[in-house]
Design a protein that fits this description.
Elements (H helix, E strand, L loop, with lengths): L2 H12 L3 H20 L4 E3 L3 E8 L2 E4 L6 E4 L2 E8 L1 H15 L4
């Protein structure tokens, strides 16, 4: 699902205009991004947690020269799904397969 599809569905289900829905979603995403940039964890209960994760320095290979190289340590945004979200996805997949859980 693309962002525009997401905005359209939220607008449809809430009865709010697409313009207002777009503003709310953009603001929420901007807030998540700025919080991560400030190294703050964002917890959305029942959905999941966004947080910055530290990646260690590691060995790699330059694909153009095939030379070994060191990839420096870095920070990257990460998402951990809540147990509620994981369970909803599992139940949905079970229904698609014809079973139940």
């Amino acid at each position: 699902m693309q962002k525009t599809d997401f905005i359209a569905r939220v607008a449809e289900q809430t009865g709010v205009s697409k313009k207002v829905t777009r503003q709310v979603i953009e603001t929420a995403l901007d807030l998540i991004a700025s919080s991560l940039a400030a190294n703050e964890k964002v917890v959305l209960s029942g959905f999941g947690t966004f947080e910055m994760r530290q990646r260690r320095e590691r060995r790699g290979v330059n694909p153009q020269t095939r030379q070994a190289m060191t990839i420096p340590a870095s920070k990257t945004p990460g998402f951990s799904a809540s147990n509620n979200l994981k369970e909803m996805v599992r139940q949905s997949q079970a229904r698609e397969r014809g079973g139940s859980r």
